[in-house]
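forwarding from the other thread:

> can someone predict this with 6-O-phosphono-beta-D-glucopyranose?

sure thing
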Amino acid sequence: MRPDKDAATTESTPMTAQFIPVDPFDLVVFGGTGDLAMRRLLPGLYHRDADDQVPAGCRIIGAARKDLDRGAYAGRVKAALECFIGPASLDGKVLERFLGRLDYHRIDATRDEGWRALAEQLAETPERVRVFYLATDPSLFGPICRRLAEMNLNSAATRVVLEKPIGHDLASAEAINDAVGQVFFEDRIYRIDHYLGKETVQNLITLRFANSLFEPLWNSGAVDHVQITVAEDIGVGDRGDYYDKAGALRDMVQNHILQLLCLVAMEPPAFLDADAVRDEKLKVLRALKPITEADVKAATVRGQYQAGAVGGRPAPGYLEELSADASDTETFVALKAEVENWRWAGVPFYLRTGKRMATRASDIIIQFRAVPHSIFGEATGQIVANRLVLRLQPDEGVRLFLMTKDPGPGGLRLRNVPLNLSYAETFTLRYPDAYERLLMDVVRGNATLFMRRDEVAAAWRWIDPILSGWQARQQPVRPYTAGSWGPADAVALIARDERSWFEDAL
Ligand code: BG6
C-alpha cells in the first residue's frame, strides 16, 4: 500500500491540509486554568490560529476560580504554549495575535460573582457563534448550565461542549444529561470523545467505506476476531485524585475504546451525517452482549501496575504515585466483548488498555480467518492468516500482512510480510491534535464526531453490570510490572480461546 510516488502526487490527493475558515466565534473555557485547557485546548487553538482558521476578532475566554487578571492569564497560557508546543515552533506574530484574543473571568459555578461580567462581555458580540467548553468536574456541568441560562447565555447560536467523564455510571450520567438538557437542546450539546478526532480514527471510516476491498470481508465469514489495544507508557501522574475514583474501565473503555469498537463494527451509514453515523454506532452498543456478574471472572481482567521500568527508566508503582497504602482501582483492564448481530456473531472483540505498559501504542487489529486448505507442503513454511493492523498512534499507519513468496531460487518458501502505509512517509503534514479538529467542528456545528446522549447511556448500560459484577465477586486487581503488557491473567483470557495478543504488531 505504499503508493508509488507518481500516483501519490499526480492524483487528486493533496499533500497539504486544507483549512476551511469557520464563522467568527467567542469561546469560553470553564476550567480555563486546568490541565486539559493548558495542555491541549489552548495549544490546539493556537495551531488553528497559526493556520489562519480563526477569524479576526474571535475571543478565547478562560473562566476558573483562580484570582487572575487578563495579563496573568495570558502569561500562563504563553508558558503553556512554550511548554507544550515548544518555543522554537511558536511564531512570534501568531503568538502575539493569539494572546491578544485571550481574556479571563474569575468565576465559581457555585457563587454569583463573575457571571454578569462574562454575560456583558459576550453581549458585545451577539451575532457570533458562542461556545462554552466545560472542562471541569462533571458535577459542575449542571450548575454551570443553570448559571448560563440565568444570564440568558443559551441562545440559538450557542453550543456547549461536555468533556468526559460524563458521570461515573448510568444514573449519574443521566442526571448530568438531564441537568444540561434543561438548558440546552440536544443539538447544541457536544459530548466530546477526543479519540474520534484522531486522524487515524477518522481514517477507519474512510478505509471501510471508501474502499471496496474490505467491506465484503468485514464480517464473521472472513474475520476470526478483532483486537483493540490502547496502551499508554505514562502513569497516572498528578491525576490520581480523579483516576483513583474512576479506573481504566470508566476512564478509557466506557468512551474511547467502545467508540473504536463501534466504528469497526457498525453498519455503513447511508451518508456521513451526524445522526446517520450515531444511529449506527448506537446499534452496535445495543448489540453488545452483557457481561454479567456470572461472566466477569471469565470475560474480564483487572490489573494495577507495580514499580518497574518503562523504556529503560525506573517507574514507580501506582500506589507510590498515589501516595496511598492501598487501592483497589484498576489501571489495566482486558475484556472479551461480543457483538450479537448477524455480521459479528461468534467474532470476539478482545479489548485492553492500561497505563505504564511496555510502550505507548494504540492499535486495532482485524485478524482474518485462515485459508481453508493449504496446497503447499510443510517445507514451505506455515501459512499465517491475513491481518490488518490499524496503528492509531504513534507511527500512524495501516499495515496489511500478506503471505508472500520469499524471493530466491531453489524451493518455495512463504513469508508473512506487510504492505505498509506509513503516514509519516506518505503525508508531509503535521497531524493536527484531535482537539483542534473537534473544536473547529463545534464552531461549524458539525456533531458527527460527538456522542449523542443515547450513545453515552448505552455505553454505561454495558459498563455498569461489569462494575457491579466486579464488586459482587470482589474481583481483585492483579499486579503487573510497569513496563510489561499487563497481568498474566490477560494472556490467559485470550489463550482460553486459543488465541494470543499481537504484541509483535505494536
Ligand atoms: C483521556 C484519559 O481521556 O485519554 C487519560 O482520561 C488518557 O487517562 C488519555 O491518558 C489518552 O489520550 P491520548 O490522546 O494521549 O491517547
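Residues 164, 194, 232, 251 surround 6-O-phosphono-beta-D-glucopyranose (CB under 6 Å). thats all i got for now
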